[in-house]
Structure formats: structure tokens, C-alpha cells
Specification:
- With 168 residues, this protein is of the alpha+beta class.
- It contains five helices and five strands.
- A three-stranded antiparallel β-sheet has the order 1-2-3, with no helix packed on it. The protein has a two-stranded antiparallel ribbon with strand order 4-5.
- Its cofactor is Fe(2+).
- InterPro entries: Alkb.
């Protein structure tokens, strides 16, 4: 997978050892699992073990050049999959170990994805639909997206502790 005799590997190893040399060996006991994973990710050493990661690109011959050009690759057999074809002859996958999970790679074109993102921001990110920003901020009634697109100067104020405070 990764050549341990390469210059890049040796450089990453030196950097990792340098940054962890004086670290308390018991510090991980104080870290949350998220913080531990974050530290490992940011160190970029050792390189991630992707043997248990499903990589469906490795099953697709049309993506062979993409897979070989990549630095890391998972495995096509890391998780049991069942391939099927839709009525429109598009490939899909189900996962027997996760009932109900269906993966439809590249089911929507990039253009359609952009249309759906725009639609969701324009039509659904305003009153009466709540967003995660509503808890913390007073948002324009038309929605932050529409207000910003229309006049470019949408102001967002922190939500006051007293609910009856009005900003103008």
C-alpha cells in the first residue's frame, strides 16, 4: 500500500516522531475518541489502513485509471455487497449486513445536484422551517439565502437571552 522506504514516508515518520516526542503517553486517556481520531488524522502518520474500507471504484473498470492514480484505495470486498440494476439500467448496491441501505453511485448528475441544493436553500431555509441557525440567531423572515441573494446585505443578529428583545 504505502512504500515505507520512500522519502515521503520517511519524512512523515520523522515529523510524527518529532511532534510526539515530549507528549505525555497517558494524554490519550484524557481525550475523547473524536479528539484522538483528529490528532491521528492531522498527524498523517501512520498512513491510514483502508483494508476495512469499501471502495466501489475498484469494482468499476471504467474508473481503473482513477484508482491507480490515487494514493489510497480501499477494498471491493471489505463489506458484503449485492449489485443490482435499476429499470433505467443504472448500477446500484445493497448491503445485507445493513438492511435498507441502498447505494446508487452517480445517480444524480452534477447539474441536478446543484439544482437540488439551490432549491433546498431558496425554498426550505426560511420560516416556518427551522434551521440549526434559528436557535442561535434572529434570521430574516424570507430566509438568509434569499435575503442575501436579493440585496447582499442580510444582517444576522445573535438571539437575545430575553425573547422579547427586538433588533431593528
Amino acid at each position: 500500500m504505502i512504500d515505507s522506504s520512500s522519502q515521503a514516508y520517511k519524512k512523515a515518520r520523522r515529523q510524527y516522531l518529532k511532534t510526539t516526542r515530549y507528549r505525555d503517553p497517558n494524554i490519550k486517556n484524557d481525550w475523547s475518541p473524536f479528539r484522538t481520531a483528529e490528532k491521528r488524522f492531522k498527524a498523517k502518520f501512520p498512513p491510514p489502513d483502508l483494508t476495512k474500507v469499501l471502495d466501489l471504484a475498484t469494482l468499476d473498470e471504467t474508473r481503473a485509471s482513477e484508482v491507480t492514480a490515487g494514493i489510497w484505495a480501499g477494498r471491493p470486498d471489505a463489506v458484503e455487497t449485492r449489485e443490482f440494476f435499476t429499470k433505467s439500467n443504472r448500477k446500484g448496491y445493497t448491503f445485507p449486513s445493513i438492511p435498507g441501505l441502498v447505494l446508487l453511485p452517480a445517480f444524480l448528475s452534477p447539474k441536478k445536484q446543484r439544482e437540488l441544493v439551490r432549491w433546498s436553500l431558496e425554498e426550505h431555509s426560511h420560516t416556518p422551517n427551522e434551521t440549526n441557525l434559528d436557535v442561535h440567531y434572529l434570521l430574516p423572515s424570507k430566509g438568509l439565502w434569499k435575503e442575501t441573494v436579493q440585496d447582499g446585505t442580510a444582517l444576522v443578529y445573535p438571539r437575545p437571552i430575553e425573547a422579547d428583545t427586538i433588533y431593528e
